[in-house]
Amino acid sequence: MSLLVVGSVAFDAIETPFGKTDKIVGGAASYISLATSYFTKGTKLVAVVGEDFPQEFIETLQNRGVSTEGLQIKQGEKSFFWSGKYHTDMNSRDTLITELNVLGNFDPIIPESYQDCEFLMLGNLTPAVQQTVINRLTKRPKLIVMDTMNFWMEIALDDLKKTISMVDVLTINDEEARQLSGEYSLVKAAAKIQAMGPKYLIIKKGENGALLFHGKEVFFAPALPLEEVFDPTGAGDTFAGGFIGYLAKTGDISFENMKNAIIYGSAMASFCVEKFGTERIMDLKEDELQARIQQFQKLVKFGALSF
Amino acid sequence: MSLLVVGSVAFDAIETPFGKTDKIVGGAASYISLATSYFTKGTKLVAVVGEDFPQEFIETLQNRGVSTEGLQIKQGEKSFFWSGKYHTDMNSRDTLITELNVLGNFDPIIPESYQDCEFLMLGNLTPAVQQTVINRLTKRPKLIVMDTMNFWMEIALDDLKKTISMVDVLTINDEEARQLSGEYSLVKAAAKIQAMGPKYLIIKKGENGALLFHGKEVFFAPALPLEEVFDPTGAGDTFAGGFIGYLAKTGDISFENMKNAIIYGSAMASFCVEKFGTERIMDLKEDELQARIQQFQKLVKFGALSF
């Protein structure tokens, strides 16, 4: 089924304990679209870049079946740019540079041909822009998934809460869940956040996996223990892309199927961190994907138990 | 099958964000023996206390089928005492008081009737004392599981490495695995630690679950997301007790069965943290245990997947 992806398409410059990059392609919607492209040929992208953005990456997306009709290219302007440096533990990072550029006044125009989308993935963006996207859709999608981050909790909490109230699934990390809810216990945090609107909450815990909450139900998906995490940038976006991509492929938005979708999201994210930027998820092979899914199944499988 | 447990039986005074206790019963072997008692009536305890230790707790152990023939009671001396205060996140704590008392010159005497034990659980103790226990057994147990902590890495690394080389399963937490191996990646750390001797390594990650490594194989068990973690003291010991208790009950020390054992260990630990000290694991009911195991099975279960 068709899937609308909205978010940043941008440049990043990244430094990790394993090396550093020049300006490379990044942005939430870049990672998300690449990830969804392994599940559906119906991905439709809404984003904005400057004239400095490489045509080559746009063609890569197109070749992977992503529609870029909704990708605005602003002549005479520059793409969003973020630069950051990860600490030794790779779980925390410092932002060195943020240049909003074209993202500063991003107007998310939805092409007419996108109006039939049944799935909507709102990558991390200004909450007001995310909200505009929802309001511009003539028919509410079957499922709206939204990612966000602590930054918006600090500078646009009211907008953020309004947008959160309009979506079905919210994905945030553990620290953000605590910040948004004011609860340290993730179980209590999940209850409070669900009361804000979303019927499903995914709490991402990086190398410690992810939790899916729905009412009183909870599902846990591990992250794959990796020899080396090379660059965590985009892992959360890739996870979200794998998650909604699988749901769009199967058309099944039940809680049971969301559990499966989280495993696919985790598998996609496990590839993402193995190289800098989007490199590792540009062209994954069928057998790599298959083997990775099997590793996840093996990782948590145990016998039938009773006391 | 019979199971020898060696470790501290002691007093703790604990402060958490939820309250504080006076001197209550604690110590690794107290938690371990209580946990193993749900799996086997063949637990045999070797430990030392002072004359200040409550007879009531010793009787509780006996009533739960734990042999206390190897529990030395030193007249005119005081039991080991530890006092600590947990930080808000409950993942870190400050030690306020440590009084070694009887533990300062603990000589682990193994009663003759204990010599047939097929399973040995070495709770956290001076590595030299743990080693003495192994050397005093006339027949090597079928399985030796050892717990330790960062403290011994700092003051008795050579002794510790020697003891580690003599055991089958080592249980440590993630920070300790990194410290012991000098590797940040837990996959790399696991390989290095297995090269020190133990064929199995369990890395405990608190609220983030536990990993079991064996050669190139890895298994992950989640922790149960809890509304409230009241007091994490003894959770690792209770986990170890549930783990080895289940192995002793089934008599099966295969990697596959260790996966099951880790789930039982995690279930036991999830009870432990719900109240201060040993309170919650003193008298668990059959149906509580059954329900908790089912929660674990449900927590990680997803469908049959393929790309």
Descriptive report:
The first copy, chain A, has 307 residues and is α/β, with parallel strands linked by helices. Helices cover 35% and strands 24% of the residues of chain A. Chain A has helices at residues 28-36, 55-63, 127-136, 150-155, 157-164, 174-181, 186-194, 235-250, 255-272, 286-300; strands at residues 3-6, 10-16, 19-20, 24-26, 43-50, 67-74, 81-86, 93-99, 119-122, 143-147, 169-173, 200-204, 210-214, 217-221. In chain A, the strands form two sheets. Chain A has a nine-stranded mixed beta sheet, sandwiched between helices. In chain A, strands 2, 3, 4, 7 and 8 form a five-stranded mixed beta sheet that branches. In chain A, a hairpin with a 6-residue loop joins strand 7 (81-86) and strand 8. The longest helix of chain A has 18 residues, at 255-272. The first copy, chain A, is globular. At the A-B interface, helix 7, strand 14, helix 9 and helix 10 of A face helix 7, strand 14, helix 9 and helix 10 of B.
- Rounded to the nearest angstrom, the distance between the terminal CA atoms of chain A is 44 Å
Total helical elements of chain A: 10
**Which pair has the most extensive contact?**
A-B, 44 and 44 residues
What's the arrangement of strands in the largest beta sheet of chain A?
Answer: 6-5-1-9-10-11-12-13-14
Q: How much helix, percentage-wise, in residues of chain A?
A: 25-40%
Runs of chain A in which pLDDT lies below 50 for 5 or more consecutive residues are none
* Secondary-structure class of chain A: alpha/beta
Q: In total, how many beta strands of chain A?
A: 14
Major sheet of chain A: size, sense and barrel closure? 9 strands, mixed
Strand percentage of chain A lies at 15-25%
Rounded to an integer, what's the Rg of chain A over CA atoms? 18 Å
User: How would the global form of chain A be characterised?
Assistant: globular
Sketch the topology of chain A as an H/E string, one letter per element.
EEEEHEHEEEEHEHHEHHEEEHHH
**Would you tell me the overall average pLDDT of chain A?**
96
Q: Give the assembly state of these chains.
A: homodimer
